[in-house]
Amino acid sequence: MINYTNVKAVIFDLDGVLVDTAVYHYQAWRRLADSLGYSFSVEDNEQLKGVSRVGSLELILKWAGLEKSEQEKEQLLAQKNQWYLSLIEQLHPGHLLPGSLDLLQRLKTKGMRIALGSASKNALGILQKTEILNYFDALIDGNVVQASKPDPEVFLKGAEALGIEPAHCLVLEDAQAGIDAAKAARMQVVGIGSAENLKRADDVVGDLTALVDKF
């Protein structure tokens, strides 16, 4: 069980927690995989949750049995990101997942420190388009971390940026790699989704609505 009275900061993952851009990532990765002659499945996409852009490409190339030069990989990553960015142009506040805005508002009124801890390199644009950027005291994304989840770097940097000890940080995550990263950082973590898919989480809820009254 989580001791919410001990929480001084909350670190949010982005995709699947605050806003669902996963479908756009899936569409862009599938289009890229198709161009490589590989049939990219929903199950494949599940394995990319919480993994960096570079790490995701490496997995797809591995599944497809392909080897590419570093220059070719850069070109493929740029192409995937171009397709993804064109898809998320349509994002607006109405795309926020249930409870997202209510929880951010509650945390702010309670004086909680708030950070984003995401592998996304497009996090800033997504937060701007959904009009929630002003709620965050720190933004730790794929542009400032080297290691992908389940490495705890993103969450440890979030705690450092907020000036809060890891033991007083609560992570909100929808991917197993993120749960593992939070535990490695010695933080409490709430899984967003299904308990059977989120092992080791201290608690699991369907969406952020369930957490609003905890603070």
UniProtKB/TrEMBL annotation:
The record marks S118, K149 as: Important for catalytic activity and assists the phosphoryl transfer reaction to Asp8 by balancing charge and orienting the reacting groups. Mg(2+) binds at D13, D15, E173, D174. GO terms for biological process: carbohydrate metabolic process. GO terms for molecular function: beta-phosphoglucomutase activity; magnesium ion binding. Keywords: Carbohydrate metabolism, Isomerase, Magnesium, Metal-binding, Phosphoprotein. This is Beta-phosphoglucomutase. Belongs to the HAD-like hydrolase superfamily. CbbY/CbbZ/Gph/YieH family. Substrate binds at residues 13-15, 29, 48-53, 56, 80, 118-122, 149. Its cofactor is Mg(2+). It comes from Sphingobacterium thalpophilum. The active site is at D13, D15. Its EC number is 5.4.2.6. SUPFAM superfamilies: HAD-like. It catalyses: beta-D-glucose 1-phosphate = beta-D-glucose 6-phosphate. Binds 2 magnesium ions per subunit. Pfam families: Hydrolase. It comes from the Bacteria. Transmembrane segments: none annotated.
